[in-house]
Design a protein that fits this description.
Shape: elongated
CATH class of the domain at 1-120: Mainly Alpha
CATH topology of the domain at 1-120: Serine Threonine Protein Phosphatase 5, Tetratricopeptide repeat
Radius of gyration: 29 Å
Number of strands: 3
Distance between the termini: 30 Å
Order of helices and strands: HHHHHHHHHHHHHHHHHHHHHEEE
Length: 385
């Protein structure tokens, strides 16, 4: 995400453009009307870093015509970048009110107005504008991208999918990753509604689009759990875990909470995974913290080992001083520590986007900031304890 300094520099360049325009038209032109003193006042504001006063002055002074339209549009963008979206909307709506506005300027201004509404969170008006711009060839691609983002935000995956496919036909980009996740989002909605048949239909569409993704396997696991096919669900989890460790955080709890009759089977698979990658132990310990009421021999043993490595003096002091060290590191203490760590973790545990670094306390298949799919990784909270 651009920093404030970037926005500031952008504003400086835009205002510099305004000054150039003023200089060329009022200092270098052969007109007879002289220099409006208000322009000199605006320049003084800029030199004194009073950009707000300068912007207000220039926006009131410059008449809108074919030569000044770009300056007005730039001022509107600067208003928006500064968070003064109401001023940007007012300026761009004023431009659109001109009866003699050329068509190219009309659509350019309309796009900026759509951006204003989008920035202000007025998505219904923003969507209406981008739907109109979608029919205009010069703005179609940008409009489709905005329509996709808006419908993603509201979870309108069918509509987002239609716009994505239209965008794919427009520029021949490889959008298979996005399409794969849209199919999975729709499948997951059908699972929540109990429509497993429709969920399977969209799962089949998703499979094969993005072979490195674990999302399709996750949907398959959910469907298997709904069908009470524990062994197939465990197989899907193992396939996920071998590709991405985040599977332990998002999928294993569902397995452990839904496969009571096949605990031996999941424990066998967990031990195989541990043999292949000992660092998985930290993730299993994390599950023990995140879900302190889950009962599983493998995880309980790992949690016991983890707690024995921690500084637990404060916890031990709370117990009867006659307890032996062995009994202090007991199931009672283990459960106490698990709940204590769980409460602490709720406010501190985070996922991090591998693309942009954005951190959040909840897992998401799509980064809220950079919109990358399946870029979330688990920060190993336990190593910081």
């Amino acid at each position: 995400m651009p920093s404030e300094s970037v926005f500031y520099l952008t504003g400086i360049f835009i205002l510099f453009g305004v000054l150039v325009y003023i200089y060329l038209n009022f200092f270098e032109s052969d007109n007879d009307h002289g220099v409006n003193p208000d322009y000199l006042t605006g320049l003084k504001y800029l030199l004194n870093e009073e950009s707000d006063k300068a912007i207000n002055l220039f926006s009131n002074l410059i008449e809108i015509d074919d030569e000044t339209i770009q300056t007005h549009l730039a001022l509107g963008v600067l208003f928006r970048k500064q968070g003064r979206v109401d001023k940007a909307i007012q300026l761009h709506e004023y431009i659109l009110s001109k009866d003699d506005l050329p068509e190219n300027h009309y659509y350019q201004t309309l796009f900026e107005l759509g951006e204003n509404y989008f920035s202000a969170g007025i998505y219904n008006k923003s969507e209406d504008i981008f739907l109109k711009l979608r029919e205009h060839e010069n703005h179609k691609e940008d409009a489709l991208n905005k329509l996709i983002i808006i419908n993603e935000y509201f979870g309108e995956w069918e509509k987002a999918l239609n716009f994505l496919e239209e965008l794919d036909a427009q520029n021949n980009q490889d959008l298979s990753i996005g399409r794969n996740h849209y199919y999975c989002e729709i499948a997951e909605m059908h699972i929540e509604n109990g429509d497993i048949k429709s969920a399977n239909t969209y799962l089949l569409k998703a499979q094969g689009l993005h072979t490195d993704s674990i999302r399709s396997e996750y949907i398959k696991m959910l469907i298997n759990l709904e069908n009470s096919d524990s062994l197939a669900a465990i197989s899907s989890f193992v396939s996920m875990a071998n590709k991405n460790r985040v599977a332990f955080i998002i999928a294993l709890p569902k397995i452990l909470q839904s496969t009571d009759n096949d605990l031996d089977a999941i424990n066998v698979e967990l031990m195989k995974l541990l043999d292949n990658d000992p660092e998985i132990m930290d993730y299993l310990a994390l599950i023990g913290v995140m879900y302190p009421d889950i009962e599983n021999k493998v995880i309980e043993n790992i949690m016991q080992s983890f707690i024995e490595r921690q500084d637990i003096v404060q916890e031990i002091d709370k117990l009867d001083e006659n307890y032996s060290i062995t009994s202090k590191i007991s199931n009672q203490l283990s459960q106490s520590m698990r709940h204590k760590l769980n409460n602490k973790m709720k406010s501190e545990y985070k996922f991090s986007c591998k693309k942009c670094g954005y951190q959040t306390i909840s897992f998401s298949w799509q980064c809220p900031t950079c919109k990358s799919w399946e870029s979330s990784s688990s920060i190993n909270y336990l190593k910081a304890i």
